[in-house]
Design brief:
With about 260 residues, this protein is mainly α. About 80% of the residues lie in helices and about 0% in strands. Helix 3 runs antiparallel to helix 6. The longest helix has about 35 residues, at about 95-125. It starts with a helix and ends with a helix.
Length: about 260
C-alpha cells in the first residue's frame, strides 16, 4: 500500500512542481501573512497584540492555501480531463490512490505552513516583537500545528472528489479558506468565548495555542499533544471518506 501511494504522490508532486503558475500562486498565498504583518508593523501606532493576533490567523490560513491549487487539480482536474478513469481502472486500491494524492496535497500544505512560520519569524525579528519561549513555539508548531495541514489536505481532497471541474473545485476550495480565517478572527475579537476544552478542538485549538504561546510563552504539555492527535485522527477519517468517494460509479465513469 505504502509503495503505491508513494509512487502516486511523487507523480502528483512532480506534475504540480512543473506548473510554475500554481507554485508561484501558492508561494504568494503563503507569504501574504508575513507581508501584511510586516507592513502593519511599520506603522508607529501598531500594537504587539494586534501583530501577534494577525500572525496566528495567517498561520492557520497558510495551512489551507498551500495545497489548494494541487487539490483542485488532482481529482477534479483529472475528472475534467478524463484522465482519472484510466488511473482508477489500474489494479490499485482506491485507498492507495487517495493516500497518494493526499500526500501530494499535504506536501504543499506543509510547505506553505513552514514558509509562513519562517516569514513570520523574520517579521518578528525586524519589528522587534518579543515572543517568549521561542523553543516552546517551535515545539507547538511541530506537535499541534503540523497535523493541521494534513487535515486541510484531506478536506480539500474530499471536496475535490465531489467536483466535476477545476473551476467548480476552485469555487468551493476558496470558500474553505474562510473557515480558519473566520474562526481565528472570532477568537481574536471574542477571546472570552473560548473554553478550556476548546484547546483540543482542531482549528480552534491551534488558534488558542498560538495566541497563548505568543502572548505569554506558556506551553501546556498535554493539551498540544491531545490537539495534535485529534487533528491527525480527524485527517485520517476524512481521508477514508475521500477514498470511499473514489469507489462510487460517478467518479469512475467521470459523470
Amino acid at each position: 500500500m505504502l509503495n503505491s501511494a508513494l509512487i502516486i504522490a511523487r507523480k502528483e508532486i512532480a506534475d504540480s512542481v512543473r506548473d510554475v503558475r500554481s507554485v508561484v500562486s501558492s508561494l504568494m498565498y503563503a507569504l501574504m501573512g508575513p507581508s501584511v504583518v510586516g507592513l502593519v508593523s511599520l506603522s508607529n501606532h501598531s500594537q504587539t497584540t494586534v501583530l501577534l493576533a494577525m500572525m496566528s490567523i495567517f498561520t492557520l490560513v497558510s495551512a489551507f492555501v498551500g495545497g489548494m491549487n494541487v487539490a483542485m487539480d488532482t481529482v477534479a482536474g483529472e475528472r475534467e480531463r478524463r484522465s482519472l478513469l484510466p488511473l482508477l481502472l489500474n489494479p490499485v486500491r482506491r485507498m492507495d490512490v487517495a493516500a497518494g494524492k493526499w500526500l501530494a496535497v499535504a506536501f504543499f500544505s506543509v510547505a506553505g505552513l513552514m514558509i509562513n512560520v519562517l516569514g513570520s519569524a523574520i517579521v518578528c525579528l525586524n519589528a522587534r516583537v518579543q515572543i517568549a519561549a521561542g523553543l516552546g513555539l517551535g515545539v507547538l508548531t511541530i506537535v499541534a500545528i503540523f497535523p493541521l495541514p494534513l487535515l486541510a489536505a484531506a478536506l480539500q481532497l474530499l471536496i475535490s472528489t465531489a467536483c466535476r471541474s477545476t473551476k467548480e473545485a476552485q469555487t468551493y476550495l476558496s470558500m474553505i479558506v474562510f473557515l480558519p480565517m473566520g474562526i481565528g478572527m472570532f477568537l481574536v475579537f471574542f477571546p472570552a468565548a473560548a473554553r478550556d476544552w476548546c484547546g483540543v478542538l482542531p482549528l480552534v485549538g491551534q488558534q488558542i495555542q498560538l495566541q497563548r504561546v505568543a502572548a505569554s510563552g506558556g506551553l501546556h504539555v498535554l493539551q498540544p499533544i491531545a490537539l495534535g492527535l485529534l487533528t491527525a485522527g480527524l485527517a485520517l477519517l476524512v481521508l477514508f471518506a475521500a477514498a470511499r468517494r473514489l469507489q462510487r460509479d460517478e467518479i469512475v465513469l467521470g459523470n
